[in-house]
Amino acid sequence: MKTKNEPLVKLTTLKTRWFALLCGLICSVPCLGQLTQNRETGNMLKLTFNNVVAGKPLALRQDYTNSFGETYSVIKFRYYITQIQMIDSSNMSVQFFPDDYFLIDAGDSSTRTLNIPLSLKRLSYLSFLVGVDSVANVSGTQQGALDPANGMFWAWNTGYVMAKLQGISPAAKSPAHGFTFDVGGFKPGENAARKIEFVLNPTTKKSKAIHSIVFNVDVDKWFNGTHPIKLAEHPGCHEPGALAMQLADNYQTMFSIESTAK
Amino acid sequence: MVTICCLMVLLSGYLLCLSFTGPKAPATPVTFVVPAGWPQPLYDFKQNPLTTQGIALGRKLFYDGRLSKDGNFACAACHQQFAAFATYDHNVSHGFNNSFTRRNAPGLFNLAWQKDFMWDGGINHLDVQPLAPITDTLEMAENIDTVLNKLRADTAYVRMFSAAFGDEKINTLRMTKALSQFMLTMVSANSKYDRVMRGEDSFNLPQRLGYEIFQKKCVACHAPPLFTDLTYRNTGLSVDPYLNDMGRMRITRKPEDSLKFKVPSLRNVVLTFPYGHDGRFYNLMDVFEHYRGGVVAGSTTDALVKNKIPLSNFEIGQLKAFMYTLTDSVFLKDPVFSPPGYENRTPLAPGEHLHRYQY
User: Fold this and answer.
1) A129 and A81 Cβ atoms separated by less than 8 Å
2) Are B89 and B130 in contact (CB under 8 A)?
3) Fewer Cβ close by (within 10 Å): the C or N end of chain A?
4) Could you tell me how far CA B344 lies from the centroid of its own chain?
5) How far is the C-alpha of B198 from the C-alpha of A21, rounded, in Å?
6) How far is CA B105 from CA A154, A201, A224, B108, B248, in A?
């Protein structure tokens, strides 16, 4: 099905013992060619997502102030990273992972690093989607990172929450001053998934390819990345539509490269 | 040395493989039978092939109160077989903690031909449909992880998941696919109307006249064989100020979808009263009165009903006679849909109130 995060599922569907034996053997070699979240193996590109506010690591339940002078603290911050694509422009070779879905959760540091098998000689371009492609939104129940039990799924109006920011702000005119931005929508015109692209500095001939990229993911951009969104005016987003699209435009700007390493 | 290494690897591989596969018989495939003359179903059975074991598991889940927070509200508490899996005699259904649902529970049958689910079509796949009632605070009020953990703690479920899906893993995907399998088998195509169409029976006079009126005045929306064209329409029901239900517009956010609701199937309609998306019509007479007099024409009201549907008392009598021919008594009593373990008993009679039944 849709995720490759769970290699063991596939094994169990194989009927014969011999097949299983073979697979057992393969499995004793640490999961070759498999994308993993927070596990280091082989010739890999390591992507690290540092959630930050104004350049400093995000601390949950700590007060920050947005550009409108509104104080807020973050309780939950989660987003899907999917459709990772890498290009070596010197020979136009491409690596694309359309079926791998990762859920980054600020409350779980183990979700912050992704390891991707790297076969390109040089990495000159990288892109990914924040959110979940529309096919996965219309294909019934999914598992792994997309399991509806992860709480990133709207049951009454089918679809994934692509990214979620939830917290408390005295500016929010809502019960207990809570604010919740559940941003989703996959239909044409209200698709909240956003593609993030980076052209990487092509390395000189003798240097090695990039093997690690650290991103800063700035929460504060949710309020002012492209559109000004004041907590006093918008304490919540719970459905696809205009506000979700604006929030999506904002979170599209929250990624920047902190550093790369060979 | 090399050989020993090889042997070690082989052994570890073999041990691993033992932990994955017991000597297990594969699940028994079940063929989905499309009634003669019906269109092909929309459900993609390739993604969820029916098996005896999968259907049995879905049936157990459907009747299990543990899918709800307080153990009282199985799917079957609101979807009762003798009412064609609607809630018998309730405008809206009861849910957790004495709450009421906001809409009338529809009958469940012929789901394989439906693209979208719920009165507003908000759910786009049968497999994800159960997640709505399970997590809705007005219905079963439970969270998915808690439900899964309750199932994992029950060895009967561990065995049944294993039989249906090849191993003991219990997750959302498998739970919902099993529920789909059971619900997909609920095909209702054996009413008197069907027998007449197959040439095995014939209408009496009022039924035949009713059928003719139906063909003229109703069939544009309630199209056979499903008795719905699965579109969303505003038939001029006034807005209930308490529920303030905008219907399809809640999903599409388009003003032109305001107050539109899915055309309900009229199969087994005699048993699925009360009627309408909020159950405001207590009997068929109320529905006919609405069509001939009560239609509130607004900007999105369907052209077919905007100027009301003229119906004489005589015609209403005939139409009613025809409606009775849509009752599929085989479906309503089929033991394969009854609570597991109840195969040899008669289903609960409509008079027996189901809310607190534990199966």
Assistant:
1) yes
2) no
3) C
4) 24
5) 54
6) 20, 59, 44, 9, 16
Model pTM? 0.85
Q: Choosing among A11, A156, A160, A243, which should be mutated to test the B contact, i.e. which has the most B CBs within 10 A?
A: A156
Give the pLDDT of residue B241.
87
Token pair, residue B8, equals 């070690």
The CATH number of the domain covering residues in B52-187: 1.10.760.10
Q: Pairing relation of β-strands A44-53 and A212-218?
A: parallel
Nearest to A15 among B26, B127, B251 (CB): B26
Of B223, B38, B37, B69, whose CA–CA distance to B139 is shortest? B69
B190-209: per-residue pLDDT in tens?
999 999 999 999 999 999 99
- What chain A residue is nearest to B253 in terms of C-alpha separation? A241
**DSSP-assigned letters across all residues of B197-251:** HTTSS---HHHHHHHHHHHHHTTTTS-TTTT----EEB--PPPPTTT---BTHHH
Give the number of other Cβ atoms within 10 Å of residue B240's Cβ: 13
Query: Is B97 in a helix, a strand, or coil?
Result: helix
Taking alpha carbons only, the member of B125, B128, B140 closest to residue B67 is B140
Q: Is the pLDDT of residue B333 over 90?
A: yes
- For residue B6, pLDDT over 60 is answered with no
Q: Using the 8-state DSSP alphabet, how is residue A207 labeled? A: S
Q: How many angstroms separate the CA atoms of B279 and B107, rounded?
A: 12
User: How far is Cα B280 from Cα B245, in angstroms, rounded to an integer?
Assistant: 13
Phi, psi of A181 (to 5 degrees): -105, 100
DSSP secondary-structure letter at A45?
E
Determine what percent of chain B is predicted with pLDDT higher than 90. 73
Q: CA-to-CA distance for B87 and B359, rounded, in angstroms?
A: 17
CA distances from A194 to A125, B12, B215, B235, B325 (A): 17, 44, 49, 39, 53
Q: Tokens 């055309």 identify what position?
A: B263
Cis geometry, peptide bond prior to residue A202 (ω within 30 degrees of 0): no
Q: Amino acid identity of A48? A: T
Does a cis peptide bond (omega within 30 degrees of 0) precede residue A170?
no
Domain ranges within chain B, ordered by starting residue:
52-187, 192-329
User: Which stretches does DSSP call E strand in chain A?
Assistant: 36-37, 44-53, 56-57, 64-65, 71-88, 93-105, 113-117, 125-130, 153-154, 159-168, 178-184, 194-199, 212-218, 236-237, 255-261
Distance linking the first and last C-alpha atoms of chain B: 61
Q: In this complex, is the C-beta atom of A22 within 8 Å of any C-beta atom belonging to chain B?
A: yes
Residue type, B230: L
For residues B31-46, give the mean pLDDT: 96
Residues in chain B: 359
- Residue ranges of A 124-183 with Cβ closer than 8 A to chain B: 137-143, 147-149, 153, 155-158
Residues 300-329 on B with a CB inside 8 Å of A are: none
Chain position carrying tokens 């004793």: A28
Here the tokens at position B43 are: 């459900």
Dist CA B164 CA A237 (whole Å): 39
* Beta strands at A236-237 and A178-184: parallel, antiparallel or unpaired: parallel
What's the angle, vertex CA A28, arms to CA A26 and CA A33, rounded to 5? 55
Tell me which H or E stretch contains A84.
Answer: strand A71-88
Q: Does residue A141 contact residue B172 with C-beta atoms inside 8 Å?
A: yes
Rounded-to-integer distance, Cα B59 and Cα A249, Å? 45
Give the closest residue to B294 by CA, choosing from B237, B245, B247.
B237
Q: What CATH number labels B192-329?
A: 1.10.760.10
